Amino acid sequence: MKMFASAVAALAVPAVSMAGTTIDQSFDFMFPLSPGMVTMEFDQFDDMGGMRILKEVILTVDATMSADATAENDSTLAAPSFELQFNGSMLFELLSLGGADIANDAFAAALAPSDGVSGSGPDFNDYGTVSLGLSDGDSTTTDLAGFIGAGTVMGDLESSGGFSFSGTTDALLGFDNFHLVGKATLTYVYNEIPAPGAAALFGLGGLAASRRRR
Predict the structure, then answer these.
(1) What are phi and psi of 198, to 5 degrees?
(2) Coil, strand or helix: which one is 200?
(3) Residue 144 is inside which H or E element, if any?
(4) Cys-Cys link to 157, which of 22, 23, 61, 92 (CB 3.0-4.6 A)?
């Protein structure tokens, strides 16, 4: 099967927090499984010629793995406690940042003995769309040099998943539209350095206030 990936990157307006000023960039992705991967691309941090000091870099990834799933009992015995089991994993790396998550879920159904007709009957169940949530993040206050510049930083996001069953000796599983969709967010936390003129004005203001107090 030909693999494809789609992604959209966006840069947010700087915001001020208790820890400093922050810049958020988002990278929206969707790619088929399994397995599959996409390359994440973000702008480096612009330190404005040394007037902004990068303090921390934070990367978070939130994603949903999903597929349209069906199951059919191929055994001559009934499967009143049949379970479709869904497992997924996600791994990402970007310079010194990285993380991983795994998730699983089970979907129950009562299936009759095989009726010999594929894709219908009481031995067949259409689950519709089944989903798993995957999420993780990482941050660093060291090894920041690679994030600073006028270019981009690249990272990889990989994911895989699969289905299995229990409750019968033989079953046929079907799935379609199996993919991962989500968003990666890179946050730069930084402090501003006052321009020399502003620092001088601050000093003069402080001196004037001191004289008035005398």
Answers:
(1) -65, -40
(2) helix
(3) none
(4) 92
The answer to whether the CB of 71 falls within 8 A of the CB of 124 is yes
Residue of 190, 210, 30, 58 lying closest to 136 (CA atoms): 58
Q: What does the block give as tokens for 189? A: 């936390």
- Name residue, tokens 């791994």: 91
Contacts by residues 4-8 (CB-CB < 8 Å, ≥ 24 positions apart) = 4/31, 4/32, 5/29, 5/30, 5/31, 5/36, 5/37, 5/38, 6/30, 6/31, 7/38, 7/40, 7/41
Burial of 1 (0-12, 13-18, 19+ CB in 10 A): exposed
Encoded amino acid at 104, one letter: N
Structure confidence at residue 20 (pLDDT): 78
How far, in Å, CA of 66 to CA of 19, rounded? 37
> Would you state the pLDDT for residue 80?
97
| pLDDT block averages, 10 residues each, the chain of length 214 | 48 58 96 94 95 96 98 97 97 97 97 95 97 98 96 97 96 96 98 68 46 47
Q: Specify the pLDDT at position 12.
A: 56
**3-class SS of residue 196:** helix
Domain definitions of the chain by residue range: 6-213
Q: What is the pLDDT of residue 43?
A: 98
Quick check: helix, strand or coil at residue 157? strand
Beta bridge partners of 59: 138, 186
Radius of gyration of the chain (CA): 26
The pair of structure tokens assigned to 160 is 């895989």
